[in-house]
Amino acid sequence: MAGLEIVVEGLTKSFGSQTIWADVTLTLPPGEVSVLLGPSGTGKSVFLKSLIGLLTPERGSILIGGTDIVRCTSAELYEVRKLFGVLFQDGALFGSMNLFDNTAFPLREHTKKSESEIRRVVMEKLELVGLLGAELKLPGEISGGMRKRAGLARALVLDPQILLVDEPDSGLDPVRTTYISQLLIDINAQIDATVLIVSHNINLARTVPDNIGMLFRRELVMFGPREVLLTSDEPVVKQFLNGTMIGPIGMSEEKDEAQMIHEQAMVDAGHHHGGVDHVEGIIPQLRPTPGMPIRQAVARRQERVRAMMRSLPLSAQTAIIDSLAELDEPAHSGDEPSGSPQAVRI
To answer: Engineering a disulfide at 194: which of 3, 22, 85, 119 sits with its beta carbon 3.0 to 4.6 angstroms away?
Structure first.
């Protein structure tokens, strides 16, 4: 069964007189991986915390399994939270507990499982994230990447239908960021959970998600299937995904028109604009590791993209047709799982 759909309507959040974002409306499709992007300070983590009821928006609704968590009772919110697994930026591990007890904590807190059953589940999740043999280590004795994976094991221990991941690349080098990106894809292939990743990592945004959203200037600029966002001519989306200075995003979030004209003139004169090389077409999405199940999310997304094709610019249609043709080729994943994935060393 696919993870739960999350429907956000007209969400507005402020701190005092400062509006963080206003009238955010989107639907996270069930069982798909979505990424929420945006420059630093645009409220991405605030949005994540709102989805699990840690922060209460001033207006709007968040429907999860038919429950509006903005207006529900404390008891209802407690039950809804059991559907979530959350990986915070630093792993949020208890420093005085070893990795086994950190991972076991939600099971001991929220279930009546026996210690033998808890051990079975915990060891299964630690193996999933490549931490077998490290279960007796304390968080202070391991690397940042290992703490990330331990936090992920704990987030998965209650078999969540929704997985929220806050800045998985924070503190990691590019190679280890790729490993954890692959791990998230493999987990989605196995449990078909709805995944939302908050990030500003360009490579992750291009290669991991089924859907991409972009926060900027206190609003949601766009949200939709990866094929649509990766071919978008929306200036802020295009600038962010290419990591260039040319566009509306500046050092203090946004630029005035005079600055944009000046920077474009510098580019026209041959001055390097920074960022990555512009990539034509749609970069292939990460696929599950060989031996993993086929990700059901891909077929669901393809069907949605094909339904909206005619509403897109011709150049986007051409790129999407080429991309969908590649996806239609046989994947290297098996039809059946073959046990746990190989351990990754982060």
So the answer is: 3
